[in-house]
């Protein structure tokens, strides 16, 4: 899977395709994620004597390490997200532990708020929608790099991925 992620078919590689120019904020975020990856690796090794299954902690270690790399150098290309909100098979599986954590984090931060607010006309702004919410809309504009388009979405989906906690790059 890692080789497929490094050299995806019909799209640029996550490494060096769209190099990010690190800022003090992205370096700080990279450090936080790298520290998390290191702690997960230590946990895996420390628990190995109790059970070889502890090596499964290396999967989230790799996922969080790739996110650290995204904030330091590779940018949103790390997630290999397509305009329709889908991702490559390799990205799907390699980054699944991170995506599960991102979904949990989003739910924890937004669970007490309305899923969206009306701005004007047919325009609403809100959190990343779940399946039961998205089909109330004709079109969705997705700015997340890590979240995947909900299954069975009938809305037209346009993804313009941006790393979380960063600004939209000038293009």
Write a concise keyword list for the protein shown above.
two-stranded parallel ribbon; single chain; globular; 171 residues; 13% strand; 42% helix; alpha+beta; 6 helices
Work out the helix count: 6
Give me the strand/helix succession: HHHHHEEHEE
Q: How much strand?
A: 5-15%
The beta-strand count equals: 4
* Helix percentage: 40-55%
* Strand line-up across the major sheet: 1-2
What structural class do the secondary elements suggest?
alpha+beta
Computed Rg: 17 Å
What is the average of the pLDDT values?
Answer: 89
Shape: globular
Low-confidence stretches: none
Determine the N-to-C terminus distance. Answer: 31 Å
Largest sheet: 2 strands, antiparallel
